[in-house]
Amino acid sequence: MRPQRIGLTGGVASGKTTVSLLFGALGIPVIDADQVARDVVAPGTRLLAQVFENFGPELRRPDGSLDRSALRRLVFSDIRTRRALEALLHPAIRVRTELLATKAGGSYQIHVIPLLVETHAGSQYDRVLVVDCLQSLQLARLLARDGCDAQQAQAMLASQASREARLAVADDVIVNDGEPADLAPKVAALHQKYLTLAAATGAARPPAHAPPAED
């Protein structure tokens, strides 16, 4: 029986990573699309060579790895470039994500998908969890975290789905408008909810070895 999959999403600098780490601390398998994206373009991979070929050798760091900051600046400044990159990477990301999910098991899983709304992927998950905050908070956190200028930060926010679009697909919402410590009880409450839902779903399904019902 496949574990329930919770698609966790939110805007840039909304707190997705902090929330996913809290679920992980509770023993829940967490599969992060950003980490998967790093794995598929690890140094020496054919896919990384294709990134350099298609998007420029200036993205290559001296050690042969991908300069992710330079790539982020490139794709957030040009929507056509971003779509071309997604078309190149997403098939490999999907394959690796499915492999990791199959191996991970668990009563339920958290799949961190930053572009869940943009890629219309909500239907692939049993529930969608949105980490939400005001855009002004996103901007302040982004400036403090990445050290980018205000123009770059605004471009990153503008390139993503709107807050309203994310909330429209949400089954559950964590409001992250306070301190990081405020998130733990919110995650704990959802953890219990998801365990209950997973148990109810499992009970509703007959065992794989069950004989067919008699007429």
Structure notes:
Helix 1 (16-25) packs across helix 9 (183-204) and helix 3 (46-55) packs antiparallel against helix 5 (79-104). The chain has helices at residues 16-25, 33-40, 46-55, 68-77, 79-104, 135-146, 150-158, 163-168, 183-204, and strands at 4-10, 30-32, 108-112, 127-132, 172-175. The protein folds into two domains: 1-29 and 106-202, 3-Layer(aba) Sandwich (Rossmann fold); 38-104, no CATH class. The protein starts with a strand and ends in an 11-residue tail after the last helix. By secondary structure, it is of the alpha/beta class. Mean pLDDT is 90; it is low at 204-215. Helices cover 53% and strands 12% of the residues. The protein has nine helices and five strands; from the N terminus they run βαβααααββαααβα. The protein has a five-stranded parallel sheet, with helices on both faces.
Task: Lay out the secondary structure.
Layout: E1 4-10, H1 16-25, E2 30-32, H2 33-40, H3 46-55, H4 68-77, H5 79-104, E3 108-112, E4 127-132, H6 135-146, H7 150-158, H8 163-168, E5 172-175, H9 183-204
Parallel strand pairs: 1-3, 1-4, 2-3, 4-5
Helix pairs in contact: 1-9, 2-5, 3-5, 4-5, 6-7
N to C succession of SSEs: EHEHHHHEEHHHEH
Mean pLDDT level: 90
Q: How much of the polypeptide forms β-strand, as a percent range? A: 5-15%
Q: Helices and strands: which structural class?
A: alpha/beta
Q: Major β-sheet, in short?
A: 5 strands, parallel
What's the Cα radius of gyration?
Answer: 19 Å
| CATH architecture annotation of the largest domain | 3-Layer(aba) Sandwich
The CATH superfamily title of the largest domain? P-loop containing nucleotide triphosphate hydrolases
Q: Judging from the principal axes of the Cα atoms, what is the shape?
A: globular
Assign a percent range to the helix content. Answer: 40-55%
Number of helices: 9
Runs in which pLDDT lies below 50 for 5 or more consecutive residues are 204-215
Reading side by side through the largest sheet, how are the strands ordered? 2-3-1-4-5
- The rounded distance between the terminal residues' Cα atoms is 25 Å
CATH top level of the largest domain is: Alpha Beta
